[in-house]
TrEMBL record:
<keyword id="KW-0812">Transmembrane</keyword>
<feature type="transmembrane region" description="Helical">
    <location>
        <begin position="6"/>
        <end position="28"/>
    </location>
</feature>
<dbReference type="GO" id="GO:0042802">
    <property type="term" value="F:identical protein binding"/>
</dbReference>
<feature type="domain" description="Sensor histidine kinase NatK-like C-terminal">
    <location>
        <begin position="211"/>
        <end position="307"/>
    </location>
</feature>
<feature type="transmembrane region" description="Helical">
    <location>
        <begin position="68"/>
        <end position="92"/>
    </location>
</feature>
<keyword id="KW-1133">Transmembrane helix</keyword>
<protein>
    <recommendedName>
        <fullName>Sensor histidine kinase NatK-like C-terminal domain-containing protein</fullName>
    </recommendedName>
</protein>
<feature type="transmembrane region" description="Helical">
    <location>
        <begin position="37"/>
        <end position="56"/>
    </location>
</feature>
<dbReference type="InterPro" id="IPR032834">
    <property type="entry name" value="NatK-like_C"/>
</dbReference>
<dbReference type="Pfam" id="PF14501">
    <property type="entry name" value="HATPase_c_5"/>
</dbReference>
<keyword id="KW-0472">Membrane</keyword>
<dbReference type="InterPro" id="IPR036890">
    <property type="entry name" value="HATPase_C_sf"/>
</dbReference>
Amino acid sequence: MDFLVFSNISLMANMFFLIFSILIHFIWKKEAFVHSLSYTIILLVIPVLSMCLLLSKPILYLNINIPSAFFILAAFVLFINIMNYILFYNVLENEELRFQLTIQKEQIEFQRNKYEQLGAAYKNIRSFMHDTKKHLFYIENCVTEKKYDDIIPYSKEIMHDLESRYCTINTGNLVIDAFVSNLLLQTKAQGITLHTNLKFDKATIPVNDYHLTIILGNLLDNALNACRGQIGANIKVAVRTVDGTFTIHVANTYVIADPDKAPDDFEKIDFIHGYGLKNVKDSAEACGGFCVIHHENDVYSATVIIPILNP
């Protein structure tokens, strides 16, 4: 009898320890992946009910009078809790995988849109070359026929046409030219002031076009989305090679109307879709660099620094 009572007490202690471990692991898991409140309630309800059941007076009375029955009941409750944890853990794992799959699909769509921009920029360059040849041929005919007065108004007309139709940024890097030119058009349309500082050696850029598309595309989209609805909004874009590093710095206006609602960690702010800056950081780290997020004096900035290993 005493042995059974001792075994029951030991079993209860082990069960409470298991339930406590499940709760601790659940809390730790929540740090890595935030799931819905319903999953939290479902996962906790059975352990809580189990503890309430085993601590109820009838069950404690059963432990004193019929220890063997209490032992079987406690073992059964323990088994139910273990199975409950395993099943819901698998459910949460599947939910996390579905969430990651959704992120990947949206990121692929983001990449597709950016590559379409690059493709459009490339077509614009070819169209620019074709149109330039026609313009030069016309100017050549004007010179041959000594119609000099026709050249100046025609040149002004074609300059206006070229500025409105083709990339206005020309650094020699197609990704940077396409994205910054597209940003220039969008900021003009939305009344946002844009400042650019593009001074880099295109031959020493330590980032391939894939990662450069992710980094620059996400940072520019992030800045543009943050400036929507801001009064006197402005964006600063700097792409430079400085002291053996390739640096991309994007800063934008971000005024917090209510200081009480200011985020605790600006590193986690994302104005795109919740994971754009994570992709930026991943690409920066893949290239041997890092990303720094900063907010001060109503200015939100993101800086990516990648070392140039073989300048």
